[in-house]
Each structure stands twice: as C-alpha cells, then as structure tokens.
Amino acid sequence: MSRILKRPMFRKGGEVMEGIMTGIKPRQNYESGALAKAQNYNKILTAATQGASTGPDALTQFLLRTGQNLIGGQSAGGTKLQEIVGSTNEPMENYFKELQRKAQQEKQIGLQAGMLGIKGQQAIDIAKAKAKEKYLKDESPERYYNTLVKDRSNALAKLKSFDKPTADLKFNRNVSEYDAFILPKLRKTENEAGKDIQARYKGLLPFDIKSGTVVYDNLPAGVVFFDPEQKIFVERVPNEKGIDEYFSYNPYTYTKQKVDFGTKS
Fold first, then answer.
1. What pTM, to 2 d.p., does this model score?
2. Is the dihedral of CA 92, 96, 99, 105 positive or negative?
3. What is the pLDDT of residues 163-175, one digit of tens each?
4. Residues sharing a CB contact under 8 Å with residue 87, sequence separation 6 or more, in sequence order
5. Model confidence over 37-64: pLDDT tens digits?
6. Which segments within the chain are labelled E, that is strand?
7. Each residue of 206-216: pLDDT tens digit?
8. What is the C-alpha separation between 166 and 245, in angstroms, rounded?
C-alpha cells in the first residue's frame, strides 16, 4: 500500500489526466455559462416581481367573489346548481384572466432573463476577443505573424467543401505578413513616400469571394490599396487620354513603378 501511494498520480495536486485518466477532460464550470447566467437573471427578475402583495391572490379573489355572489342572491330563481354556476361565472372569468396575466408576466421575465444572459455572454466574448487581439499585437512581429498563419490555416481547414475562403484565408501568408509587418511599418513610417501612401490608403483590394480573385475594376482614382495576392500597394491613375494606368509601391521601401497587368477582375 505504501508503495502504491508513492506513485506520481498520488503525489500531484489537482487534476491528474494520465494513466487510466488519459483522454478524460477536467470538469468544466458550466455554472458560469450563459445558460446558468440566464437562470440566475430569471430568479432575480422573478423575485423582483413577487414582493409583498398588497391584495389577495387570484384564487382568493375567486372564492371571495363567489361567496359574495351566493350570499347576495345573484342568479337566484333557478335550481341550487344553477345559482352556484351563475354566481361563479364572473369570478371564474376574472380568475382565468389573472392566471393568463401571470403566465404572460412569467414569459416576459423568461425572455428578459434570456436576453440579459445572451448580452452578458456576448460582452464576455467581445472582451476576450479584444484581450486576445491586444495580446497578439503586443507580441513580437515574428510571433504575431506565426500565430496569424496558424489560426488562418486552422480556419481554412475547417471550411466545408462548398465554402469559399475569404481573402485573408486564401492569401494567408501574404495577409498575415501585411498584418504583422507591412501595416504597422506604414503607420509609423517617416518616409515621405510612405506618408503619402498612408494618407491615401483605403485597405485591401476588393475581393470577389465567388471567383476567389481580387478586383481591379472601378477602383477610385488616386486611392491606394493593398493587393494581397501580389503583396504590393497599388493605385489607378487615368492618363491624359482617359486610359487607366496602374502603379505599384513596394510595401517596405515604397518605391513606385508602373505595372502593366491591366484591369483585373
């Protein structure tokens, strides 16, 4: 027995997921999930609407009104059973109205609790996403780049056969390099050509998800975009004859040159 108790699984504290426990996941805290939050909100809202009553409940009202009608002789003149039935008509109708009102109130409480729970969970998810984004941006550019490539590769692998990848998934490495190196450098550049690009920069080129291609048609003249396929900054400049010309800029040195790839779509 003393030898058994000296095995590693007995020396560790907390969760031990080795040996016969391999593959078993630790217990999740479902009591802090969205469903549990909604149930807690439901209890709070229900308690708020069920404070000390200032009058009799629906059943008590029914009995009092029925007794009062019987004593007052309402519906008198028929058999005893007819008198009783006649005396309960109005109280019964009021009783069902009160039950319906309470049921509606409980439904509203349930809906409000559900919405509060969902909004609360959404706020948590948004906060987590922002925290993750900030954490990634605080990393070194190299590590940020590797993380983006990995995350986008995983997202691409999860697409169904009929799903079409977005530009960031199709051009994963180019867009990840853009996010981790090119765009941060452009934002901080002291290069005059870089500053000019930054002032006229409008983001990634439009992307046709159906055809999986970047779109050069109808680009605003004089506005700079980033081509995620060729990994360059580009702009359209009509010449004196009204013919579109395209110029590219190196994403690191910002050197400009005319390109002869024509209109792409």
1. 0.49
2. negative
3. 999 999 999 999 9
4. 66, 69, 70, 74, 75
5. 656 666 665 665 554 444 456 666 656 5
6. 201-204, 207-208, 213-214, 224-227, 232-238, 244-249, 256-259
7. 999 999 999 98
8. 27
